[in-house]
Write a structure and sequence with these properties.
There is one protein chain. The chain has helices at about 5-20, 45-50, 65-80, 100-110, 125-135, and strands spanning about 30-35, 55-60, 85-90, 145-155, 160-170. By secondary structure, it is α/β, with parallel strands linked by helices. The protein has a five-stranded mixed sheet, covered by helices on one side.
Amino acid sequence: MAWQRDLIFDAARRYTSTFEPDMLTAAPTRGIVILTCMDARLDLFRMLGLEVGDSHILRNAGGRATDDAIRSLMLSAHWLGTREFAVIHHTGCGLFGVTNEDIATKVESATGIRPNIDFLPFDDIEASVRGDVERIRRCAALPRDSVVWGAIYDVHNGCLLPIDLPVPIIGATEPMVR
Ligand SMILES: [Zn+2]
């Protein structure tokens, strides 16, 4: 496989040549954070009607509410003023229907190293959305005047299905673990 680096820098040079500074600041103008999967098929700007500067977008495998995702939510909320958090998982996710065992075995067969981490796979997409919404909702370090909601994006028909209506952050009723 040819590396993409040269093409990326070619594109970056073209971008620089036409770049026009704007008035945007680091704070998202619409006050929202989208937590979603790294899946290459998700065109978040077009599917959610977002423009550059509107939103923070956090992406990881599965769009899971990991400690690191929550680290970013804390910074987004307390430093840059966001108050609405969205969890969007999607159909056809690579983490759907696999197990930590499956993933660890694949990594071990390629590298000889068996990772001992939770990759956060899931076999119920609604439950994974609800669980991550709940985890964020119970985070005591997020502002109480913020809300979190969940949705599922269907990669086959482009539909965004609401799962959880916006619910307020209620803070920790149990220790944050994951
Ligand atoms: Zn995915």
